[in-house]
Every structure is written in structure tokens, then in C-alpha cells.
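retry 2 of 3: previous attempt timed out while embedding 4'-deoxy-4'-aminopyridoxal-5'-phosphate. Reduced batch size to 1 and resubmitted. Inputs unchanged:
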Amino acid sequence: MVKRIHNFNAGPAALPLPVLEQVQKELLDFQGSGMSIMEMSHRSKVYDAVHNETIANIKKLLGIGDEYSIIFMGGGARSQFALAPMNLRGKDGFAQYAITGNWAEGAFKEGKKLGDAREIFSSAASKHDHVPEEGTIKVDPNAAFFHYTSNNTVEGTQWHYVPDTGSVPLVCDMSSDFLSRPFAANRFGLIYAGAQKNIGPAGAVVVIIRKDLLARSSDNLPDMFSYAKIEKQNSLLNTPPVFAIYIIGLVAKYLLGLGGLAGIEQRNKEKANLLYNAIDESGGFYKPHAQKNSRSLMNVTFRLGATELEEKFIAASKQADIEGIKGHRSVGGMRASIYNAVSLDSVKALVDFMSEFKKQNG
Ligand code: PMP
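retry 2 succeeded.
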């Protein structure tokens, strides 16, 4: 028996065990080809089927059709901070941003470097402990797009609604909650997500673009920076991250088998409720960072008060086979990332550990 740890890493993060087992099974001889999928041409028939099936299954999970294209790119979600405005803003246009955390700030910074980017919401004054309340975001109808970050990985907050921007295209960084819950994908102009949290290994970014927006990519953009050029070649303009795409495909199939996004959301809610209850019922020993109605179902952030106690907590957690709960360096404290692949049993193990630690140190 292989020993698997309780993995609360923020990304790269846990992958579903059945997916890893399938990868292991197929590694040396993929579908009778006598080689692994990493060793074959990205233009082969065998790979092509995997590539297109992955796209079809993501579309199925999201309930979107031909009005959208799905492309795979490299460069991490961070590249998209620049590529979205480069492609969608136009020469004299402006974009509006909601700054709800560390990564939203990153997107905004890149947007400003390249042109006119305007902040219309910021939660910085309260250390990004909340997202805007529904109905409070007012987007300028002349904006080229509105950008937001659906789940703030570092701070542990999440938008629990899709903002209404009228006819202004919605652009969303969904890196840390993509395919974790059902949402109205047809309300978006552009969605991007680095794979390494909920849907696969590092190395690929899934980009979903409404086809009419492809016309905005200027011909003057370098080919590899152009959504339109990459889409035209079905993400085969250059060698795509084939291994990552293959695993994303396996994860998509796994999610369909669980009943799609509604099925995985139910599991994710159960895990998050268990952990937030443990925090809320700790009599103040564990202090949540996020305001209640902005709490993330993916990244649960909390503090213990004294730094020494937090260090003790982290050291003791490792003894209990719990890994990855140290908070991001920019906020400190704890962060338990409970993405799709983290099991209820792992969350139970964490909650039991928290209860025991409190008994001994409270
Ligand atoms: N956006 C969000 C919401 C993230 O959580 C991260 C990574 N933690 C990034 C962007 C950056 O992703 P990458 O490392 O793939 O560039």
C-alpha cells in the first residue's frame, strides 16, 4: 500500500486518486501505441482524440456550445493577466477591475502596464476579507471588459454570484475554483484558469472565449499571444502541454462520473461546512479571515493569534500527516485548500486535529 497524505496544498494541489491510478496504468503504453502520451506527436490521431475529447467534456460540464471556444495555453494564469487586455481591450479602450485579493491585484498591475485599467472596487483596506455585495458593482457601459477573480486563493474569499455587467464582457480569473461548482458560463466573455488547483497539473491554462470576442485580437499581436491565432489552430499552433491536457481530460471525465458540477459542489460544500463549523465553534481559538458571506469553499483561511502558536500548529499538523496548511506568505496564518480532489476524510482528519490541538493549547 502506498501512503497518501492529507494534502491541503494551494497549488499544485491534490488530484483525484482514480485519475492518478489511470495515469499510472496508461503511462508506459497509451492505448496500445507502445509509448506514453508524452512521447507521441501532438499531431497524431491518438493525441488528437484526447485533445478534442477534453474540450468536449469541459463544454459538457459547463453546458456551453459552439458559441464558445476552449483553448489551452502555457505560461500560467499570470500570462493571462497580460493577454486578456492585450487581446480584448482595443487600442483606445479601457477595462475595469475589482481588486479583491493578491491575484486580482496582480491582474490589475499587468493591465495598467499595457494600457488603461481602472479599479472600481477594492477590499484592500480590510485585507481583502470580502468581495462586493451582489448588485453593488456598477460597470461603465463603455468599458471593453470587467475583470474579476472568482476565488481569492490567498485570502480565502469567493464570489457567490456572477456580477451583472450588462453588455460589457465579463472576464474572470477562475484559477482556484474552476469546475468546482455549477455557474452560468454563458454569462462570460472570457474565463481563464491555471490547471494546477482543481483540474490538473501545472503547465496548462484553460481559456474559454466567446467566439465573437476573437475578432478583437489585433493581427499585430505576436501569434503566440493571440487568442484568435491559437483558437484558429485548435491550440495546436505550437506544441501544447500534452500531458497536462490529457490529465485535465481525465479529471473532466471523473467529474462527469460524479454527476457533473452539481455533484462536486455538494461534496465541496460538505467539506467547507465541516471546516468552517470547527472554526466557528472553537470559541475564538481559531479566527477566520474571511467575512461570512464571502467565505471560499476552496481555501479556508484562519489565524490562531500568536505566531508561535501558529508555528506549533504547523509543526504538529505534519505529525498528523496533514500537509500544506501554512498560509500564503503575504497574509500568514493558516490556509487549508480543499479543492475538488481533497476528500471528506482528509477534512475530517484536519478537524479532529484542530480539536485536539485546541484541547492541548487552548
Ligand atoms: N490567479 C489565481 C486566482 C491564482 O490562485 C494563481 C496561483 N496561485 C494565479 C492566478 C497565478 O497562477 P500561475 O502560477 O499559473 O501563473
